[in-house]
Write a structure and sequence with these properties.
Layout lengths: L7 E4 L6 E2 L1 H14 L7 H5 L6 H8 L6 H18 L5 E2 L3 H11 L2 E5 L4 H10 L8 E3 L10 H10 L7 E4 L2 H10 L2 E5 L13 E3 L2 H9 L5
Parallel strand pairs: 1-4, 1-6, 4-5, 6-7, 7-8
Antiparallel strand pairs: 2-3
Helix pairs in contact: 1-4, 5-9
């Protein structure tokens, strides 16, 4: 393939590149137990993922808890997750190979996630995604569905977002991508949902993503 200048494929992390649900659920349940609550099923916690750690914990705890309890839960989650974020977290089938292939084709690769930067960086490095991922924006820097995370990545990579892709499993990814002027790809295997938002292509496997991106008209 010919080298492609000034264009990027920007990925979400959880539910897109990596299956992190078991480790996230374990951390949430540790936080719940530390605050005196029983554990929740993994599937229930999965339905709460997508808007960052604080929102995940707010959704996972009773609505009427005091602010001090939420802070305790947040501290407990972060302490546990820092040491256990890669216990069962693994790349989805074909994810690493697809990212490597896109990079070899000449695409810049970024990750925009609502997970805090430190956790995301550790996962990407441990699982072999950095490099080719060379730009990362975490949820403690800027948050989807706003387009700011993509603007930050575009500045770092020096790419044109109108010629780039945002790839994710959640409505926050689709909203951020559309607002930033990217083409959007929705990953059907993830733990998120579209929220009824439109997207340019639905992908059911990483190989389908590779085909879709390669089919994009090259200026």
């Amino acid at each position: 393939m010919n080298s492609i200048n000034n264009k990027a494929v920007i990925f979400d992390l959880d539910g897109t590149l990596v299956d992190s649900l078991h480790d996230l659920a374990a951390a949430v349940n540790v936080a719940r137990q530390d605050c005196g609550f029983s554990v929740l099923p993994i599937a229930t916690i999965g339905s709460y993922v997508g808007n960052g750690v604080r929102k995940l914990l707010q959704r996972s705890l009773p609505d009427d808890i005091e602010a001090s309890v939420l802070e305790k839960a947040t501290d407990s989650f972060q302490s546990y997750y820092a040491d256990h974020c890669c216990v069962k977290t693994v790349p989805y089938v074909g994810a690493l190979e697809t990212v490597q292939s896109l990079h070899a084709d000449g695409w810049a690769i970024g990750v925009a996630t609502n997970k805090p930067y430190g956790f995301a960086k550790h996962i990407l490095e441990t699982l072999g995604f950095m490099p080719p991922v060379t730009a990362l924006c975490g949820g403690d820097q800027a948050r989807k569905p706003a387009p700011e995370p993509l603007y930050r990545i575009a500045k770092t990579l020096d790419v044109d977002l109108s010629a780039s892709w945002m790839v994710g499993d959640h409505d926050t990814d689709l909203a951020a991508g559309a607002a930033a002027g990217c083409k959007t790809a929705w990953c059907s295997w993830g733990i998120g949902h579209t929220g009824g938002l439109p997207y340019d292509v639905q992908i059911n496997s990483m190989s389908e993503l590779l085909s879709a991106v390669r089919a994009m008209p090259q200026e």
